[in-house]
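[Structure tokenization] protein backbone as discrete codes

[Encoding] learned vocabulary of local backbone shapes

[Begin record] amino acids and matching fold tokens:

___
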Amino acid sequence: MKLYAHSGVASVVFCLLWVMFGGREAHAWSEHVLLTAAVFEGQAEVREAAPVKVESLESFLGVEAEKLEKLLADEEEWARKNLRWYRPRPEALAFKARGDAGEIRTRFCRAIRINPASALKLYLQLLPNEDLQGRQIVPINQLTFLKDTSTWKNTKMVALSPGELVPAIAVLATASDEPDLGLDVGLFSDNGTECGLAYGFGRQPFGNPHLDYGSQAPFHMGFYHERRITYLLAGFLNETYPEFRIHLYKTLSRFAFETGHPYWGWRFAGWGLHHIGDLCQPYHSTVLPRVSTLRAIWVSGLSSLGIEKPKAKLIQLVSNKHLAFEKFVQIQLQRAWLARQTNAPMLAVLRGTNTPIPYDDHTPRDRVARFSHAKAVLTDRTVTECMPPKYVSDPRFEFGTSSEQDQLVDKIRSEKGEAAVTKLTAVSCDLLELYRDHGRAYMHAILSAAQPQPKDRGETNAFVL
């Protein structure tokens, strides 16, 4: 029995975090495609990969069902042996080659424990500077069951058809944003879903189980480097699953490449990159940046006595800073892509060259999240100092629902000056460089095991700037 489950102190910490991660969006970066497309323009083994033939998930599963049965059994064994806080997959969900062919997609989703209502359609997410080129637009509500799709309000999605050839990098970049479309929503027993009751993850360890984005938080956040006292008081923070997802998708990607299904090789790899990207965001690797454990306990203790104002203020301020920082990066990258500004600082860092580094199964925790966590104080302080006080220092203001979000960069420039934009950009670039280096290492680890054939001379497989 877990000691912290009976701790009165833990209960007040839990109350604070329950509200905190339900109230703040569980995205790390808005539109991961903006990052991923740039990162892999700078990696030759991705940039020069052959265009791939689009294939439905049902086709891939139908051809490889027998091999997938063993692969996923081995993957489950790996997770049980290597992930200390992993909740084992119920045996009833194990993928079996023999079964109703009409249900093979659902059986696969349940075996890897993603939401079976996920659309998983064939589509591309275009960059701001890309034309439709005659393709049919897919409304965002056909790609997700989520009610709040405001993140993609300015994003163009286009339909693909089985058999057509598309750039590998476009598949990879699109897929790197896909987990935010609901793959990890509703998977816990208190989320009010059938899959949540069946999947064996238990009750949601933190976050509001009644909110969509709150329920995906434990799969998109990794609190691996908090102070020891934090885990003693709130051990439920150990129950996070980015490492599980990153390894699972790496395994599936390699398998798809090795068995001649490159479209799904790139798509699964993109799913894994999403979770690596999330860990690069300090607000996803640090529980409460610049908020001490004692302060959190004190604020929650007051709440338990009916004094709610201090907790409400703290929650609103951390949420506002998280969302404002995310929006700053999104706006700057959108503008750089739209104007084809390859020398814009963020885009230049993402596209830049780097010394190749190794990747292993400890990388997400020991290198990515550790670096991100180490940058949390600087990031939070810079956001507080360089953004308009209304957005990040006034608990009466809610940034997440404000109509002023899209004017954030212009407001910073007018109220705080160009120096503030420069400081925020520098902090952002450190984190984007982290994603660049380890994202490329992750892809090399996959591709070195099953190298796709190089493209023919004269073909292009890159986004056009």
